[in-house]
Structure formats: C-alpha cells, structure tokens
C-alpha cells in the first residue's frame, strides 16, 4: 500500500465547501434579491441597464447573488428576445482604470487577438468602444472588488459613453461591487451619481441564515448521516459571532470535516468544531504576525505585556515607554511616537488588536485606545522569535511562569 489512499467516509465532494463553488440556489436573502431584481428590471424590458453599486462586508453573498441572478437574467432574457452579454471582472489584481479597460477589451476579443500594454489611455478607450459597439445590444459589466481601482476614470467613462457619442448601439450597464464602505465616499461626486444609480446593501448574516447556507452545502459535501444539526448550528453560531461572514463559516465547516477525517471518525463532532476554530485562528495569527516587520512585532510584544498586566485598553502614548523598553532589550532603535502609532494601527487593521475611538469630552478632540483582540497564548507562540531575542521581561516573565 502506498502512502496515499483515498478516504471517502466523510466527504462526498469536499470542493463544494470552497468559496468558488457557485450554489445552484441562493439561500435566504429574499429582500436583497428582490431589490436586485428590480434594479435589473430595465434590462429585460430591452432598456438601457441602470448602473448598480452593491456593497457589504466580506462573505455576505455579494458575488454569489450576482452570479446567480445574472445567469437567471440571461436565460430569462432569451425568451423575450433580449440579447445580453455578460462580462465579469474581478478587480483584485488590477489597480487602474487603464488596466480594467484592457481586461475588458480582452474579455471581448479572441485569445489570438489580445492587447497588452503600450497603448495610450486614449487608444485603449477607443478600442473598448469599438469592441462594445461590435457586440451591440445589452452588455452588463460586473466590476467585482471595484475598490481595488485607484482612479475612477472608467467608472465615469462607461456610464457617459452614450452621452459623449462614444457608443450608439451598445447599452452598457455597470455593476460595481465593494467590501469597502468608504469606497463610495472616495468617488468624485459625478462618478457617484452615475455609478450609484441603484444602490444595494447586503448586511452581515445572522446565525440562522448561516445555518441554512451551511446546511445546503453540507448536504452535497458530506455523506448522509456524517454531520448533525448540532455541528452545523455550532459552526453557524461562531460565524455569526465573528463577522456574519458565510465564507469564514464554510471554512470552519471544512476544517471541521478535515479534523474528522484526520481522526478517522465516522462523523463530525461538536468538539471538532472547537478544534477547527482554534486551528484556523492559529493560522490567522501566525500568518499575521509573520507578516509584521520586526518593529511591528516589538510593538505587539509591548501591547501583549500591557495586556497581561491588565493595563489595556491603553493609549498609544502609554504604550510608547514600554515599547522603548522592549527596543532597548532587543538592541533596536525605537521609532518616534508617530511611527509607533502607525504600527498599532496596522495591528488593528489585521484584527490582532482592537482600536476604539474616544472623545475627550468638553475639551473636544479624539484619541484611540488599543487592546488585544487575539488570544495572548497564541500571540506568544507566534512571537516566539522576538521573545527569544528580547527575553522575558519582568511581569511578562511572571506571567509565563503562571502559564506553565
Ligand atoms: N445566500 C447564500 N446562499 C448560498 N450560498 C451563499 C450565500 N451567501 C454566501 N454564500 C456562499 O458563501 C461564500 C461567500 O460568499 P460570496 O458571495 O463570495 O461573498 P462576498 O462576495 O460578499 O464576499 C460563497 O461560497 C458563497 O457561495
Ligand atoms: Mg465577492
């Protein structure tokens, strides 16, 4: 027997739990789907599509609902002799309107006729109009994760292409999707009003909604009898507590399944969910900490100490002396307070620390308070290298003793 053999006791089809799997039916989201359908209504009437801006946090079904509705729209439209061309683009790896335009042109062109860079912006737009005109009819362009684009020129150009005489046959609508609530505010007002003709917001999922989503996937992914309601409910409860993110919940379910496989049990247990959560949390923290610069790790270590001494939430200026002390031990030059504060901000962005804004009251003005948002034990493991260099300092040393 070789080292590898298929084990199929648990999973019927594990890939179903991956994020790129398009579910046949959307679970719940009735209100949102109704609004989305009404925003798309002009298309089926053969009219110019409205531009739609869809926003909501990660994992709330923006991409899945869009994919689902657009395929339904396309097949329903055939019945009414409306011809729709869909172009779905993820802007994650694109940073400018220029790159997006090239991507769109290439989606419309044959593989043997692709454009690369080297053209002026003007030439690229001209090619884009030509391609869109040659398709004609109704064209819907999805720009998923549109907040990755730094300049909004394409978000202005496409909606105004008809008015500017660049298009006459083609009726083009844009669907812009964003995780970032602030993206809308960052747009110039002329772009805002053209892109956000119809605005849709998807809220985070509640536990019972996550439970239904997980149930749907679990039925396909696992063999009958392998997974109980209780296990699903537990994954959903954690998911709702974390961020109401269906992607995270599906990841948790998959990790739970993997642990059951690893343990060679015949079904998933609730205790596997806890183990799975710990293991996912651990990789998140380890990856987060490994991605920090040495300075970032030192700032984190200082915050960790203050946390263990019960001195958090704390202000950046109260972290500074401790930070300088750790620098001293590590034989590293300390940063000025401003730079140190940037590192605290980064920790908050990574979800390792928590940052709350406070008001000074009468005198006005605001400041931030920082605390840890991650298990200290995990952080300590992830910070081991820094701890080795710096050494265990005073109270932290006592705390280590307490731990072991
Ligand atoms: N209402 C839903 N019904 C079925 N699956 C869903 C639903 N919402 C989200 N999902 C699934 O959860 C995962 C994350 O959803 P996704 O649409 O990618 O989120 P977003 O684009 O908002 O970040 C995907 O695998 C998706 O299929
Ligand atoms: Mg998405």
Question: Could you characterize the architecture of this molecule?
Answer:
By secondary structure, this protein is of the alpha/beta class. It has 3 domains: 30-201, Rossmann fold, CATH 3.40.50.300; 205-288, Helicase, Ruva Protein, domain 3 (Orthogonal Bundle); 291-400, Arc Repressor Mutant, subunit A (Orthogonal Bundle). Helix content is 52%, strand content 11%. The structure holds adenosine-5'-diphosphate and magnesium ion.
- How many helix segments? 17
CATH class of the largest domain reads Alpha Beta
Q: What small molecules accompany the polymer chains?
A: adenosine-5'-diphosphate, magnesium ion
How many beta-strand runs?
8
Q: Which descriptor suits the 3D outline?
A: globular
The SS-based structural class is alpha/beta
- Contiguous uncertain segments of 5+ residues: none
Classify the fold: give the CATH topology of the largest domain. Rossmann fold
Q: What characterizes the major β-sheet?
A: 5 strands, parallel
Estimate the mean pLDDT confidence.
91
Order of helices and strands: HEHEHHEHEHHEHHHHHEHHEEHHH
Instruction: Determine the fraction of residues in helical runs and give it as a percent range.
Output: 40-55%
Could you name the CATH homologous superfamily of the largest domain?
P-loop containing nucleotide triphosphate hydrolases
What is the percentage of strand-forming residues? 5-15%
